[in-house]
Amino acid sequence: MFVRRSYFGSVLSLCLIAGIPALAQAPAQKHYEPTIASLNTHPLPKWYDDAKLGIFIHWGLYSVPAWAPLQDPEHPADGVGSTPYAEWYYNSMRNPGSPTEKYHKEHYGADYNYYNFAPIFNKEVKKWNPDTMAAIFRDAGAKYVVLTSKHHEGFTLWPSKIPNPNQDHLQASRDIVGELTEAVQKTGLKMGLYYSGGYDWTFDRGPIQTNNDYEAVQPESNAYGKYADAQVEELIERYHPAVLWNDINWPKSGNAMKVEADYYNAVPDGVVDDRFGIQHYDFSSPEYSKLDHISEKKWEECRGVGLSFGWNRAEGDAQTMSSEAVIDLLVDIVSKNGNLLLDVGPQADGTIPEIQQIRLRALGAWLKQNGDAIYGTHPWTRANGTTNQVDAQGKEVELRFTQKDGHLYATLLGKPASSTVLLHNVTAAPGSAIALLGASEQVKWIQKGTDLQVELPAALPGSYAWVLQLQPAK
Ligand code: GLC
C-alpha cells in the first residue's frame, strides 16, 4: 500500500512539473443505483434542455383503421368510448354504443378482430422509407424524435425476443425501431423511445369503459412485470434511446427504479419522463396542456397538430391547428422552460399525412429564420409581454421572451398592423443594437419611459411571428 502511494505521489509530481495533466484517463463513469436518491443525482443533459422541439410518432395497428369520432376542438366529447385518440381504437370499438364500435362494424364487420390489422400493417410497412421520414423531422427543425415502440395494444415495432405469453406474432415485420433510429441519427437528430408500461391490452384487455377502469385495467401480474422489465431492458440494450418515455405507469410487479438506473448506466445523457409512477424524472409531460408560468423544472408538452396522437383520417383543417398556432405554441412553451414534443400520426405505410406535413414545413421554415430565439435559450425574467399592436383580425400582438449569450429575444406573436411598435415594459440599455432576425438592417429604436419603441422595416422577412434581438452595448 505504502509503496503504491509513493509511486503515485512521484508520478503526480513528475506530471505537475512537466505540466502534463495527471492521470489523464477518462473519469470513471458515474454509476446509478436503483434508489430515488441516486436517480435524483442525474443532471438534466444540456442537449435536451437546448433542443426545444422533438417529434412524437404514434404508429401501430391503429394506423390501419386510423379513425376516431370527430370532435369540436372547443368542446371535446365526454366518455372513454368517445375519445378523440385514434390510437385507442381497440378500446373504443369495444365500448358498446360508441361511435367507433359503429364505425368498425360498418367498415370491417362486428366480428373482425382488431389484431387482424397486424398482417395489413406488416404489408403496408414494406413501403416505408425511414430516410424520407427522418428528413421530414429534420426539416421541421426538430432535434429529437420519440417513437411508440409499443403502445397500449401491445404490438411491438421491433423484433422483441421476449415472448408474449398471451399472443403470438405481435410484432412488426421490419425492425422499425432500429431502422428509424439509424435514419434519425444519420440526420443528426437524437432518437428516443416511448413504451406503454402501464397498459398492455394483451395482458389486461379491459375494455376501459368508465373513469374507474383507468386504474383497474393496468396489468399487475408477475408475468407482466417481468415482461415489461425485460422488454425495456432489451430496448435499452439494443437501441440506446436518448429519451425513455414511459406511459401511464410502471407495473408494481416490475422494477421501475432498476429500469431507470440501468438506463442511465447505459445512456448517461438520456432522459426519462414522469410517467413511471416514481419520485424521479428529468421532465414532466403535460399532454394537450401547457404551463402558464416559467417552471424551473424542465417540462415537455406533447400533442398532435389535431386532436389525436395516432392518425385520424376523419380530421381536417377544422380539427387541426394552423401553422401560425403551432409556431405560437412552440414559442410560448420555450419562453416557460418547456420543450414541445409535437406528434405525428403516420399512415400504416409510414407516409406522414399532408395535413401534418404542412404544419411541420411551416415550423421548419420559421425556425430556419428565427431558431436563434429558440434553440439553446433560457427563459428570461418573465415569459410574456404586451405591445400596443393588434393584427388585421384585431387580435392583440403579444410578446414572448427568451435569452441566450447575453441577448434578449422578443418574439411578436402576430403581424402588427403598424410598423412602429411599442414593447411595453422593455428597456434597452443605451447603445444597444436591435436586430430583426432574418433582416439585414438594424432596427431603429428609442426608449419611451418604460416602453421600447421599435421601427420595423416596411418589408418584413418571413410571414409570421417576428423576432427582435436586443444586444446590449459591448
Ligand atoms: C396517453 C394516451 C396515449 C398517448 C399518450 C401520449 O396517456 O393514453 O394514447 O400515447 O398519452 O402522451
Would you kindly provide a written description of the structure presented here, covering whatever features stand out?
With 474 residues, the chain is an alpha/beta fold. It folds into 2 domains: 338 residues, Alpha-Beta Barrel (TIM Barrel); 92 residues, Golgi alpha-mannosidase II (Immunoglobulin-like, Sandwich). Helices cover 28% and strands 18% of the residues. The protein contains 13 helices and 15 strands. A 7-stranded parallel β-sheet has the order 5-4-3-2-1-7-6. A 5-stranded antiparallel β-sheet has the order 8-9-10-15-12. Helix 7 crosses helix 8, helix 10 packs parallel to helix 11 and helix 12 packs across helix 13. The chain is globular, with a radius of gyration of 25 Å. 43% of the residues are buried. The N terminus is likely disordered. Alpha-D-glucopyranose (GLC) binds next to loops.
Top CATH class of the largest domain: Alpha Beta
> Which ligands appear in the coordinates?
alpha-D-glucopyranose
User: How many individual domains?
Assistant: 2
Major sheet description:
7 strands, parallel
Helix content: 25-40%
- Name of the CATH architecture of the largest domain: Alpha-Beta Barrel
Unreliable residue stretches: 1-22
* Number of helices in the DSSP assignment: 13
The string of secondary-structure elements, in order, is HHHEHHHHEHEHHEHEEHEHEEEEEEEE
**Strands in their spatial order, largest beta sheet:** 5-4-3-2-1-7-6
User: Which structural class matches the secondary elements?
Assistant: alpha/beta
